[in-house]
Amino acid sequence: MRDKLLHAPPDLDLFATDRPRLDQALTRRVNADPESVERGLAQLVLTIVELLRQLMERQALRRVDGGTLNEDQVERLGHTFMELDKRMAELREEFGLDQDDLNLNLGPLGNLL
Amino acid sequence: MIELYALTDHPAPSLPDGASLSTVAHAGLAFVWGPAPTPTELSPELLWRHEELLEKLMEDRDILPVRYGTRLPDEAAAAWALCERHHELALALDRVRGAVELSVRVIGTEREPPPADGMSGTEYLRAREQTSTARASALRTVHEPLSLSARASSERAPRAAGELVRAAYLVDREAVQEFAATVTRLQAAHPRLRLLCTGPWPPYSFSET
Q1: Per-residue pLDDT tens over the stretch B16-52
Q2: Which of B93, B140, B149, B152 has the fewest Cβ atoms surrounding its Cβ within 10 A?
């Protein structure tokens, strides 16, 4: 791998956090059993939910920035998004998906998220 | 069963020795293929072997890598696929001709605290906002100038904690060193970020037909 490093910082370890995925990614692509079909459906549904979550979160941040919400409202909003984030993480875990899987390639339009 | 490796021009330099590869050609294009490993053999080692073969091919010819795990019943099926999709395959190979893929990842050293239990809703929103601001800023200061030095670029959602940019660039072979030097310059200009640039890789991110 060393010869593939065109520019690397001295603290290269920072980048070594997501290595185990190679194995997973491989087994994931080649199995076509019923369980992986169910996972494919979950992936699609969670991608749509993630799209909505991101849109709503952006909207919420804009409203917070705009200063139109009082402290209580900001706190409630933040709490709701935090819970949603946690729940999404649980569902991803359950279906063996990671954040990168929650996306759709729209061809010439690029990726959905 | 056969497994497809890459699309190349035909004729092309002879195939690397000892890799049991063959080609099937039609009208100026060829698929490089090899016998498909049986499913039980699949492993990260096989994936690396696949990658090594592609890199060897890439040394002396332009290649359009085929999605890993693409299998066809036999050589005739590969010839048929080549014939049927000739036009779009030729265009796709043209897009990457003379270029390789470089990958850049950017991590921020000022780590936002990960969303944790006990965080208030307001703190959570603030942390999210910081992350999104840091990402937007890294895209502007690193990704945008690099995109200008590349023929094409593709940006993906960050995956690891603290990761701000994960992008791939299609760079002319002769411009690779210059691109790497640009990365080094950007690193010097932004000491709070960590930039990692790897490659050259087969143009995986630019192989959509």
Answers
A1: 887 789 999 999 999 999 998 876 566 788 888 889 9
A2: B140
Strands (DSSP E) found in A1-113: 5-7
Which value, to the nearest 10 degrees, does the dihedral of the CA atoms of residues B39, B45, B51, B52 take?
-130
Q: Could you tell me which chain A residue has the CA closest to the CA of B47?
A: A26
* A15 contacts B105? CB cut-off 8 A: yes
Write the DSSP assignment of B82-108 as a string of letters.
Answer: HHHTHHHHHHHHHHHTTEEEEEEEEEE
CA-CA distance, B33 to B24, in Å (whole number)? 8
Asked if residue B101 lies in contact with residue B50, where contact means CB atoms within 8 angstroms, the answer is no
Contacts of A103 in chain B (CB under 8 A): 157
Q: What is the pTM of this model?
A: 0.83
Taking CA–CA distances from B208, the nearest residue in chain A reads A107
Write down the domain spans for chain B.
Answer: 2-96, 99-206
> B19, B56 in Cβ contact below 8 A?
yes
Residue with the two structure tokens 């091919």? B57
Question: Mind telling me how many Å the CA of A42 is from chain B's nearest CA?
Answer: 19
CATH 3.30.70 fits B99-206, yes or no: yes
- Is the ipTM, as predicted for this complex, more than 0.85? no
Q: Write down the residue that tokens 């307001």 correspond to.
A: B122
Residues in chain A within 8 Å Cβ distance of B194: 9, 11, 14-15
